[in-house]
Amino acid sequence: MVISNMAEGLLRGVEGATDRLTAPFSDPVVRLGVTGLSEAGKTVFITSLVANLLDRGRMPGLRAAAASEIRSVWLQPQPDDTLPRFDYEAHRARLTGENPAWPEGTRRISQLRLSFRIEPAGFFSRLAGPQTVHLDIVDYPGEWLLDLGLMEKSFADWSAEVISRARRRPVAAPWLAELDAADPGAKLEEPDAQALAGAFTAYLHAARKEGYADLGPGRFLLPGDMEGSPVLTFAPLPPGQAPRGSLAHEFERRYESYKRNVVKPFFREHFARIDRQVVLIDVLGALHSGPQAFDDLRLAMADILSAFRPGRASWLTRAFGGRRVERILFAATKADHLHHTQHGALSEIAAAMLREAKDRADFAGATTAAMAIASLRTTVEDKVSHQGAELSVVKGRVAGDRQAAFHPGTLPSDPGHLLHPAREGAAAWADDGYAAASFLPARVTLKPGEGPPHIRLDSAAEFLFGDKL
After folding, report:
1. Inter-residue contact 279 to 327 (CB < 8 Å)
2. Cα–Cα dist 288/409, whole Å
3. Are 378 and 396 in contact (CB under 8 A)?
4. Which domain of life is it from (predicted)?
């Protein structure tokens, strides 16, 4: 058995070394990670991006498309047979059918490979002949990234942080009542453990509905096939004695097991292999939820981005399997919920929210950018009279299949007018606040060669991987 294991390990090592040595001489591959917390629009982003790369009539900002250097694009079987395929065809049909609707959100990791046949412009480039470039798109829940911050935290430290935040939130009252009644030092009884973990999980779901973002562990919200397992049956506990066989001792053991058996494999097998990353942020949703939710999103995204290993990998490091995130795009989604005159302010707010993480990435050598996008444009712009003044609005399809005009409020040109009260714990915005809309996908008739309508999706693609095309 020992000899067999050693031989198997040696074989895997030789195969891995061979793959790494031949990688520099094979078709180039760009591995794009797409993430963001719930409601940020990951599934719609990937679906619209792929559709607009297959039919590039709406992609003038992608230079290789504008210069007609992309000869063809096609979907290929994904390289990893162990991962689910991103169901592009079903999502596209749902978004662009006769009665378009939003697809279900990301609940697990999935992958899709898009291949480009490139014929570069220029005499010397043409001598080299056409090239093939593969784009591997990896979709995964942003909530899972929150778990990466757990790796440096003990159970006691994590518990103290979570309980402290929860005591400032009314939505946590039911869970905190059960927590205060529990005896962490008492003998473990599995029904009690399940009840306490269930109350904690219910709090996380309720807090997410309230607009809060720092809601790990991520698998508690999106458990997949782990639902009901002991590795998801624990909760934060106040400090105290934890004798062997007690509730506190077992919860700490399960917390460490979660880090070892759930978080580490995800980082090692998927996240650490990303080349380019887009982080989708629902800034407008956070604004609507108020200053505390807005600041909570800022802190959660900073925690997520601290897990990246930004910087430019050397040729030798890349050849032998080491990767670093070279480009990171911070994309404020749902720009179609605003008149175009406010898109600049939305981009500035997103950049300011992520300033600390962006500065770290820039310092490490990564290229970063922030922009306001709409993966699928659902509205048209209009002007309406309101209290004797002309107001810029957007109009779109809402529930009941009717058209409605919407104005969310005027975003400040200085992001500090939002960041300062949020950091200071203000209960509400100084003005009337910011409204949120729930537009449905618009009915569209696509011409041959056209993908779905969008806002700046071509610019996002150019930044993320245009240099490879």
Report:
1. no
2. 10
3. yes
4. Bacteria
pLDDT band with cut points at 50, 70 and 90 for residue 44: very high
> Could you please report the per-residue DSSP string of 237-294?
--S----TTBHHHHHHHHHHHHIIIIIHHHHHHTGGG-SEEEEEE-HHHHHHH-HHHH
Q: Which of 56, 37, 60 is nearest to 48 (CA)?
A: 56
Who contacts 7 (Cβ-Cβ below 8 Å, separation ≥6)? none
pTM of the predicted structure, to 2 decimals: 0.84
CA distances from 81 to 73, 112, 226, 264, 322 (A): 21, 11, 21, 21, 22
Token readout for 228 is 């009901």
* Alpha-carbon span 217 to 215, nearest angstrom: 6
Side by side, the strands of the sheet bearing 131-139 are: 70-76, 110-118, 131-139, 29-36, 276-281, 327-332, 367-372
DSSP SS3 for 340? helix
- 3-state secondary structure at position 299: helix
CATH topology of domain 28-140+274-378+443-468: Rossmann fold (3.40.50)
Spans of all domains in the chain: 28-140+274-378+443-468, 146-267
Q: Which of 402, 145, 137 is nearest to 262 (CA)?
A: 145
**Strand partners for 383:** 392
State the burial class of residue 10 (Cβ atoms within 10 Å of its Cβ: 0-12, 13-18, 19+): exposed
Q: What is the pLDDT of residues 290-341, one digit of tens each?
A: 998 899 888 877 776 666 656 655 443 444 455 678 898 989 999 999 999 9
